[in-house]
Hints:
Oligomer: single chain
Number of strands: 6
Distance between the termini: 45 Å
Strand order of the largest sheet: 2-1-3-4-6-5
Mean pLDDT: 93
Strand content: 35-45%
Order of helices and strands: EHEHEHEEE
Amino acid sequence: MKVLWVSRHGILPAQAKFLMRKFKSFKIEFFRDKVSSAEWLVKNVVLPKEIDVVIPVLPLSMVARLVELGKKLNFEVWWAQMELLHNDYEEKCQNFDDDRDVMVPGLDSEGKKIWRHYRFKGFYRIKEVKLELEEV
């Protein structure tokens, strides 16, 4: 089993443990560069490396296209569900769990530096990305 991790963020220990339990034997490839399109990623990384599962942190439109391509080309796209616990801390939270959590720096509405505290909740296979639109 080959997994492609597409994110500038590394894999959390809890995420790695899940993959080890799920697959027993697997190889993970990391792609941290910018992705120009889903097609480019598939042509230059997914197909040549014979990837079975892509776990992307990309814009929704690219994720949707990856899902479409995955159906045609026989690879899955998974979502790493991260729950935002809070985004108002000026320093590391006391409830930070090294196994499941990540703190992402950002700015609040007044330009003050804050930390967004996310916790890994699980992986989900993306079967479809659907936008239901209404003209305004």
